[in-house]
Specification:
The protein has 8 helices and 4 strands, in the order αααβαβααβαβα. It is an alpha/beta fold. The strands form 2 sheets. The protein has a two-stranded parallel ribbon with strand order 1-2. A two-stranded parallel ribbon has the order 3-4. It starts with a helix and ends in a 12-residue tail after the last helix. The mean pLDDT is 92. InterPro entries: HAD-like_sf, HAD-SF_hydro_IA, HAD_sf.
C-alpha cells in the first residue's frame, strides 16, 4: 500500500495516509441486500470471485466488510496485472478456474465491462440493485438459500 500511497497524487505531495485509510474504511458498507445475496450463494455452494480493478486498497474493503466470508479475492488487477475491460483479464479468469466461459456469470455496474465478458463467452449481468440482481440470477437458474442472518 505504501507504493500506491506514493503515487496517490500526481504531484507526489505528502498527506496523512493513516487518516485517509481510516476515512475510507469508515465509508465502506454493503449495498442494501448484497450481503444477503452473497450469504445465500455461499450457503448453496456457488463459487464467487472478486473481479476488480481496485488497487491494493481492496485490502481495506476486506478489513471492513470481511468479504472473504463469501468470495475469493482471486482476480484483482493489482495482483493479476490485467484490467477490465481487457478481454485478456476475462480469459485469464476462465483459464485460472479451468471452466467454460458460458458457466461464468459476470456481474458489474459498467456496461463496457459486461460487454467484454460477453465477448469471451461469459454470461453478463448489469448490477442496478440487489433486488434486480436476485431476479436476474433466478432467471438464469441460480438457486438461493433462505437468508437467516448474513452476519
Amino acid at each position: 500500500m505504501n507504493e500506491l500511497a506514493k503515487k496517490f497524487f500526481n504531484d507526489g505531495r505528502s498527506f496523512d495516509l493513516e487518516g485517509l485509510k481510516a476515512c475510507m474504511v469508515r465509508a465502506y458498507e454493503y449495498i442494501d441486500g448484497v450481503e444477503d445475496i452473497l450469504y445465500s450463494l455461499k450457503q448453496n455452494n456457488y463459487e464467487v470471485h472478486a473481479f476488480t480493478n481496485y488497487p491494493v486498497w481492496y485490502q481495506l474493503v476486506e478489513e471492513k466488510l470481511k468479504l472473504s466470508k463469501y468470495l475469493s479475492w482471486t482476480f484483482c488487477s493489482c495482483t493479476v496485472g490485467k484490467r477490465k475491460p481487457s478481454p485478456d483479464f476475462y480469459l485469464h479468469a476462465v483459464d485460472h478456474l479451468n471452466v467454460d466461459p458460458a458457466s461464468c456469470i459476470f456481474i458489474d455496474d459498467r456496461m463496457t465491462n459486461i460487454e467484454a465478458a460477453l465477448s469471451v463467452g461469459m454470461v453478463g449481468l448489469q448490477f442496478k440493485n440487489a433486488e434486480v440482481l436476485k431476479k436476474d440470477l433466478c432467471s438464469l437458474g441460480v438457486e438461493f438459500a433462505p437468508v437467516h442472518e448474513a452476519n
